[in-house]
C-alpha cells in the first residue's frame, strides 16, 4: 500500500487563523501598554485589557500563559518602542548633541500634552508599584533604565568631546541623574496635569551642564 506524499506547504502568508491570533495578541499588547501609561498594572484586571480590544472574556490565556507573562511582554514592547524613540533623537547627526536631548524632551512633552498629561512612562509607572509586582520584574525594569542611561550617556559624551559641557563631566552619572529626575518630573506632570514639572527639570538639567 502506497502512502501519498504530503505536499510541501506553499510559501507566503501563514494560515488566516494563525494570522488572526498574532493580530489579537499584538492588539492586547498595544492595549496593555496604553493602559499602563495611565494606571497601575497590579490594580488592572485582565478583563479590562480584554474589553479594550473586544476579546471575549476568558480568552486571555489563549494568548498568554499568565498575567505575569503578559506584563513581561508589555515591558519588552515598551522598552523597544522607547529605545527607537531615543535613537531617533539622540543619534541625529545633523544636530548638536545637547540639542538632540532638548529635542527629545520637547517631543516627550508634546506627547504628554497630546494626552492631557494623563499618560506617563510604563517603566516608571511599574517601578513605582514594584512592591505589588512579581520580583522578576525588578531586574527587567532596572535593565531598561540602564539601557536608556547608556544611550543618553553616549550623546552626553559627544557633547563633552566637542566642548559643550565641562571636560571633566561624567557622562554616565549625568545620564543617571537625567533619568532619575525625568521620571520624577513625568510623575509630577501627571499629578498636576501640567507641563511645568517637565519644563523645570529640563531647565535645571541644562543649566547644570552650563548650557
TrEMBL record:
Q: Where is the HTH tetR-type domain?
A: 22-82
User: What keywords is this UniProt entry annotated with?
Assistant: DNA-binding, Transcription, Transcription regulation
Q: Which Pfam families match?
A: TetR_C_13 (PF16925), TetR_N (PF00440)
Q: Which GO terms describe its molecular function?
A: DNA binding
Q: Fetch the PROSITE patterns from UniProt.
A: HTH_TETR_2 (PS50977)
* Residue ranges: DNA binding: 45-64
Keyword set includes Transcription: yes
Disordered, as annotated region? 1-23
| PANTHER family xref list | HTH-TYPE TRANSCRIPTIONAL REPRESSOR NEMR (PTHR47506:SF6), TRANSCRIPTIONAL REGULATORY PROTEIN (PTHR47506)
What is the protein name for this chain? TetR family transcriptional regulator
What is the species listed in this Swiss-Prot or TrEMBL entry?
Sedimenticola thiotaurini
Amino acid at each position: 500500500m502506497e502512502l501519498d506524499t504530503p505536499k510541501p506547504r506553499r510559501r507566503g502568508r501563514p494560515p488566516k487563523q494563525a494570522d488572526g491570533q498574532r493580530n489579537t495578541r499584538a492588539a492586547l499588547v498595544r492595549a496593555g501598554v496604553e493602559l499602563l501609561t495611565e494606571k497601575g498594572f497590579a490594580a488592572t484586571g485582565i478583563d479590562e485589557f480584554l474589553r479594550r480590544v473586544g476579546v471575549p472574556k476568558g480568552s486571555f490565556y489563549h494568548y498568554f500563559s499568565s498575567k505575569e507573562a503578559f506584563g513581561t511582554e508589555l515591558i519588552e514592547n515598551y522598552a523597544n518602542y522607547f529605545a527607537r524613540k531615543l535613537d531617533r533623537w539622540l543619534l541625529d547627526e545633523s544636530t548638536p548633541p545637547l540639542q538632540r536631548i532638548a529635542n527629545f524632551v520637547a517631543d516627550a512633552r508634546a506627547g504628554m500634552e497630546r494626552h492631557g498629561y494623563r499618560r506617563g512612562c510604563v517603566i516608571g509607572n511599574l517601578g513605582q508599584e514594584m512592591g505589588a509586582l512579581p520580583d522578576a520584574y525588578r531586574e527587567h525594569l532596572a535593565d531598561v533604565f540602564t539601557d536608556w542611561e547608556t544611550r543618553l550617556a553616549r550623546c552626553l559624551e559627544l557633547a563633552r568631546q566637542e566642548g559643550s559641557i565641562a571636560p571633566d563631566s561624567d557622562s554616565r552619572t549625568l545620564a543617571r541623574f537625567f533619568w532619575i529626575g525625568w521620571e520624577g518630573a513625568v510623575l509630577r506632570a501627571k499629578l498636576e496635569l501640567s507641563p511645568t514639572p517637565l519644563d523645570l527639570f529640563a531647565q535645571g538639567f541644562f543649566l547644570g551642564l552650563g548650557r
